[in-house]
Amino acid sequence: MKYTAPQTDMRFVLFDVLDATSIYSQLPGGEDVTRELVEAILEEGAKFCEQVLAPTNAIGDEEGCVFEKTSKMVTTPAAFREAYNRFVEGGWTGLCGDPAYGGQGMPESVGYVFKEMIESANVAWGTYPLLSAGAVDAMTHHGEQWQRDVFIPRILSGEWTGTMCLTEPHCGSDLGLLRTRAEPVGDGSYHISGTKIFITAGEHDMSKNIVHLVLARLPDAPAGTKGISMFIVPKYKVSRDGQVGNRNTVAAGSIEHKMGLKGSATCVMNFDGAEGYLIGQPNRGLNAMFTMMNTARLGVGVQGLGLIEISHQNALAYAKDRLQMRSLSGPKRPDKPADPIIVHPDVRRMLMTQKAFAEAGRALCIYSALQVDLVSKHTDAGVRQRADEILSFLTPISKAMLTELAIECTSHGVQVLGGHGYIREWGQEQFLRDARITTIYEGTTGIQALDLLGRKIMGQQAVGLRHFLGEIGVFCQANAENAAIAGLVASLARHVKEWEGLTREIGMKATQNADEIGAAAVDYLFYSGYITFAYFMAREAEAVTRASYAGTAEFRDAKLATVGFYFDRLLPRTLSHAAGVRAGAASLTTGVEAALA
Hints:
Elements: H1 7-17, H2 20-24, H3 35-53, H4 57-63, E1 66-68, E2 73-75, H5 78-89, H6 108-142, H7 145-156, E3 160-165, E4 181-184, E5 190-200, E6 209-216, E7 229-234, E8 236-238, E9 244-247, E10 250-255, E11 266-279, H8 285-321, H9 345-377, H10 381-417, H11 428-436, H12 445-459, H13 463-478, H14 486-510, H15 515-544, H16 553-570, H17 573-583, H18 586-589, H19 592-595
Helix pairs in contact: 1-9, 3-6, 6-7, 6-8, 6-9, 8-9, 8-10, 8-11, 9-10, 9-15, 9-16, 10-11, 10-12, 10-13, 10-15, 12-15, 13-14, 14-15, 15-16, 15-17
């Protein structure tokens, strides 16, 4: 398995398509975040991911994690620990952290580009620092000052890591059913008791302490989701002045034996009267949880993107070398006994599908991260609100689309390699196994779809969608007479009009039958996602056809070919998803009980 960070395309999206420097200049201190600085950071990040991290990927899959029943300790692959030490030494753990707590203060969008490199190089290893960012966000927005002062600097330094402890054996994603208890001690602390499952990095040997953010119920809490609170429960006790004490009564009960991500420790965590501290307001834990969850959902979308990219790179290299059959239009390598399989149309279809989704997905991820920058740092409340509404709308699309497409694209990677794709030595089957979980954790595709259609469209009067459609409309109007991309713009404008109409149709049906939302949700999400990708593809085409474009002709031609492929062969998928939406709920209700009996 080889990996080369796609820095040329990353820089192109950041600066030529999305004009990140103009956004940075609007933020306090952002004038210091120059293109030269960002490019230098990404170049060093690429070296770490290519030279240090990528070589550990197959090793982690082979070795996995080991749980020792007596000590309750988890041993990670030795190469993972060495890579984490190098990660910490390089200062990467605090790249986007608040300088007040020891971070470097770089924009989140820079961090997301680096994160894509991590996920391509070793997605299992990337789970260890992934949830630390969510823990920092939760404490930043909901914690008391002493909690921020004590915990955030040590997480940003990499000395400690964080987790989310949400799910329990009996409740899955329905957190209203959780049973973990929190008993007040009387000194401001609580005793937390219960069992959590599927806890990523719940126990490991890469950091000195692990800070668990745990959902639990207070004794007088109301039933359901309105009675959930969040607590900070460290592996080693921590006092309010930052002193580290004895081992807390929280421990792993086991680790899961999984299909993929074998180097990532997924733990059952038992809390036996463990010392913890309330974070945020009593019975308002879901607010803090969603701060963490939204960070994690965007991060999982980047995991999908990283897997698409690494699968494409390795499939492309194989297709250029593998000789098999002759081209239907005549030999392309007459000096060889057969042509390389890259000449065959179906192989090209799979490779171009991977490439198009990687490039469109990268633009979506960086665009979303720029909204995070605006939400977190812009001084204008109106700008922050608009960015937050767009980000809220795009988050379920990003998470669900990129993870579902990761499964499709890594499957293409296996198929391009044929029999070699199915065996372990070539790495493609690992990418597919690793990708499979991404559509499940941090909210399944169905949950993302309900969040999009039920909450963001119906519940919030589609405010984020309206902002986003308005932005696309401005782009289409500005480029209506742009001969270089006129066909793309006309197609995009037509799809946007259909998107508006389809959204209204669902809303009208839902007033008569609420099941119409659930029946339409997944198809609506994919429909929305393909048009969202088309917008970013059109923006990329516009960028390479400007008179001011300073890149190479080879990059421009490759980009236009990829955009053309997307519009011709992938955007038409909206037709089937629109048909699915319009089919309504009847085929999921009438007679289904008998069919599934």
